[in-house]
Amino acid sequence: FKVTRVQTTPFDGQKPGTSGLRKKVKVFKQPHYLENFVQSTFNALTAEKVRGATLVVSGDGRYFSKDAVQIIVKMSAANGVRRVWVGQNALLSTPAVSAVIRERVGVDGSKATGAFILTASHNPGGPNEDFGIKYNMENGGPAPEGITNKIYENTTTIKEYLTADLPNVDISAIGVTNFSGPEGQFDVEVFDSANDYVKLMKSIFDFESIRKLLTSPKFTFCYDALHGVAGAYAARIFVEELGAKESSLLNCVPKEDFGGGHPDPNLTYAKELVARMGLGKSRSEGEPPEFGAAADGDADRNMILGKRFFVTPSDSVAIIAANAVDSVPYFSTGLKGVARSMPTSAALDVVAKHLNLKFFEVPTGWKFFGNLMDAGLCSICGEESFGTGSDHIREKDGIWAVLAWLSILAYKNKDNLNGGKLVTVEDIVRKHWATYGRHYYTRFDYENVDANAAKNLMAHLVKLQSSLAEVNDIVKKARSDVSKVVHGDEFEYKDPVDGSISSHQGIRYLFEDGSRLIFRLSGTGSEGATIRLYIEQYEKDPAKTGRDSQEALAPLVEVALKLSKMQEFTGRCAPTVIT
Ligand code: VG1
Ligand code: CO
C-alpha cells in the first residue's frame, strides 16, 4: 500500500471528557473529524511508540463503528503500526478490550500495546445519536490525563494526517489479512469477541458453584443487555457455560441503535427488566425472578436487582468487597485495598474500616483507579454510576459484577439448594445494613441544561462556600431537621502513585452527621450541560435502616435545591433522571 499525507484543519471541542470523546454521529461524520482525533492520539503517543505497535480496535457496535474501524485501520497502517486486532464485526465490550490488551496472544505470538475503543457507553446510538472514541494504554486502562490533555492540544494545531490506500478489510470473518507497505508488513487480525474474556472470567470465579445455583429450580435469573454488546457475552457465559435458560436473556442481540432505547442500566431506562423484577409502575404480573441484572451499551456498567428490590451501586461495591474473600476464588488470599469515586457513598469506607483494608477516594472516572491497581494497592473498586470492578482488568466490568453477585449468592446458599430457605439478594443487603449501617443515597441528573446556566450555578456554589455561616443560615431556614454544614470545598485529588494533581473534581458540602451533598458537571454528554447532584445520608441505627430512600432523603434534597438555587439558575423544577 501507499501512504498519503492529507491536509486538514483543527475542529473545536475535541477534548476527551470523563471517558473519551463523545459527539453526535453527524459531528463524527464530518470529513477529517475522526481522522484528526486519531492522528492527534498517535502524535500524543509519539511516532516511536506507534511504529511497530499492536492495536486493538473495536467497540460496542453502535452505528458508525464499522466505518470507523476501516478508517482507523488505514491510518494505523500509514502511521507504521505493525498489526491491528479487530473483534469480529467490530464488537468488543470495554472490559473485554481491557482483557484482550492484558491477556490475549495473537496468532503470531504478539501482544497488544493499546486500543481504540469505539463507544459512547450508555448514550443512545443511531444516525441521529452519539458516537465516541477513547484510547486505552498498555495496562488495559483509559489513557491518563497527561495523555488526554496532549491529545486535545494536538487537535487544536493539527495540519495533516496519514492514511493508506488499503482496501476495506472483511471484519465479519475470523482470520488474518496481510498487507505490505513502504515500511514493511501490516496485518489485520479478526478474532472471536468473547473467547479471551470468557477464559478470564473462568479463571476468577468458581463456575461450578455458580452453575449449581443457576440450574437449581429454587433460583430464577434474568439478564438484560439493553441491545448493547453485553449480549455477545451473556449468551456464552450465562447460558452456555452456566446453564441459565435461554429465556432468561432479554435484549441480548447487539444492535447499532440499541433497539431505539437508551442503553443505561438504571431504574428509568431498563424498563423491561425493572417490570419483570416486580418494580416500577408497569410491573409485570406473576412471580419475579430472584435475581436480575442489566448492562449499558459497552457492558462496563451493571445494575443489580433482587426480587422487587433495587441494590444501589454504592451498596453493591461495598457488599462485594465485604464478601469477596469467601465467595470468589480470585480474592481468596485477601484484598489489597478498595477504592471508590468521590461521589460514591461511603458504604465502602465502613467496610474498609471493619476489615482493616487500604482505602482510596478518587475523582469520577475509571482512569484514576488504574494507577492504584498497577501499584498493587487496590483489588476492588466502584462508582455510584453503576460501575463496579476489580484489578483483573483496568476498566469497570458489568458481567464481572453479576458473576460476583452470583458467587456471593452461591456461597450463601451452598447448603440451601437441596432444602432450606434461599438467602435472597434482599436478605444479603439488609444484613449488610444491619452490620455496617445504611447509606441512603440518590442522584439527581439535570440533563441538557443551558451550558452557561450550569456554569453560573456551579460558580454560585463555590462562592457560597466562603461563608459557612451563610450556608448554615440557608440550611436552617430550609429544614431545621438537617444537620449543619461543617466543611465545603472543591474536591482535589493527588494521585498517591505518580503525584499528579486533578482539581475541580466536584463541589462538596459535608455535614456534621456525615451527610454529603455533591455537585458536578458531567463530562460524558454530547450536548448542553448535565448537572449531577449526589445526596447521601448515613444511618447507623439498625432500627432505622429500612426506610424508603427518597423519603429519608427528602430534607437533604430540599436543602440542596435551596443552596444551589437550582430552579432559579436552570428553570428546572425536577431532575431529568433520578437514580
Ligand atoms: C459518568 C459517570 C462516571 C463514569 C463515566 C463513564 O461520567 O458519572 O462515574 O465513570 O460516566 O462511564 P460523568 O462525567 O458524565 O458524570 V461509561 O459507562 O460512559 O464508560
Ligand atoms: Co459504559
Automatic annotation (TrEMBL):
Species this chain originates from: Erythroxylum novogranatense
Family recorded in the similarity comment: Belongs to the phosphohexose mutase family.
Function: Catalyzes the reversible isomerization of alpha-D-glucose 1-phosphate to alpha-D-glucose 6-phosphate. The mechanism proceeds via the intermediate compound alpha-D-glucose 1,6-bisphosphate. This enzyme participates in both the breakdown and synthesis of glucose.
Protein name in the entry: phosphoglucomutase (alpha-D-glucose-1,6-bisphosphate-dependent)
Membrane-spanning residues: none
GO terms for biological process, alphabetical: glucose metabolic process
Location of the Alpha-D-phosphohexomutase alpha/beta/alpha domain: 14-161, 196-305, 314-415
Record key words, sorted: Carbohydrate metabolism, Glucose metabolism, Isomerase, Magnesium, Metal-binding, Phosphoprotein
Cofactor(s) of this protein: Mg(2+)
Reaction(s) this enzyme catalyzes, per UniProt: O-phospho-L-seryl-[protein] + alpha-D-glucose 1-phosphate = alpha-D-glucose 1,6-bisphosphate + L-seryl-[protein]; alpha-D-glucose 1,6-bisphosphate + L-seryl-[protein] = O-phospho-L-seryl-[protein] + alpha-D-glucose 6-phosphate; alpha-D-glucose 1-phosphate = alpha-D-glucose 6-phosphate
GO cellular component: cytosol
This protein's record includes keyword Phosphoprotein: yes
Subunit: Monomer.
Enzyme class of the recorded protein, top EC level: isomerase
Domain of life: Eukaryota
Record-level Gene Ontology MF annotations: magnesium ion binding; phosphoglucomutase activity
Entry's EC annotation: 5.4.2.2
